[in-house]
Amino acid sequence: MTTTSSYAIEARGLVKEFRGARGTVRAVDGLDLVVRPGEVVAFLGPNGAGKTTTVDLVLGLAAPTAGTVRVLGKEPARAIADGQVAAVMQTGGLLRDITVGESVELTAALFGRTSPAGPFLERAGIADLADRTVGRCSGGQQQRLRFAMALVSEPDLLLLDEPTAGMDVRGRRDFWTAIRHDAEAGRTVVFATHYLQEAESYADRVVLISQGRLVADGTVAEVRALAGSGSLEDVFLDLTAEPAADPSARTTAEGGTR
Ligand SMILES: Nc1ncnc2c1ncn2[C@@H]1O[C@H](COP(=O)(O)OP(=O)(O)OP(=O)(O)O)[C@@H](O)[C@H]1O
Ligand SMILES: [Mg+2]
Asked: Residues in domain ABC transporter (predicted)?
């Protein structure tokens, strides 16, 4: 793994707006966020807080409305093209008509390699599913496949958007064992989750956002201490506003509805 910058992710004044017929939604609202190499960061926030949008900006899948984001010291698209970043996204990214094993081999081919699928399937706990057609796999099995595919490029930075959604108890345990193993080898991991227990058990650091803004950032212990009870759930509920039922309620940026 090569690292070309002192930061894995460096976002400064990051803003992303979506313009629609009913006004402008400010999904990310001036986010300053620095992630250092080797950190395992839990990215928390209510539905619609801006987690996936931020991940998209870090992956270069969307362009910021304002501000900048650098990944391993590079433009996001460059870091991806160099195979230094991989992601497990909430949806998509799979071809239903090929097998699990072929999916991993195809991903390897995209990186100009001819890696056998076996070791990656093993790490994702789906070695026995190599010959199954993707479309016949269960939701949790497909999520494990996304994880196996994300490991293929041996990325420096792994972005996981609700990676364990739909996984069973053992699946989650296996998944996090694999992630911790990779993190100990120096890989940087940023994961969005609604399972606060995953943040408490596996993250070095918790970043909590609400309505596109950072509302808490620190070690699990530091963030827990923000609530009198010392529970991460209480901090979450205290610091995150009610989700906007109507996203256009957030259209007026300054002062807005917070
Ligand atoms: N392409 C888009 N066009 C318009 N609005 C969008 C678009 N993508 C996201 N949004 C809005 O931006 C806000 C942030 O969405 P985002 O998907 O980043 O939230 P999230 O934190 O990932 O939520 P969840 O926990 O539900 O996955 C939401 O209000 C959403 O409706
Ligand atoms: Mg999301």
From this structure: 9-236
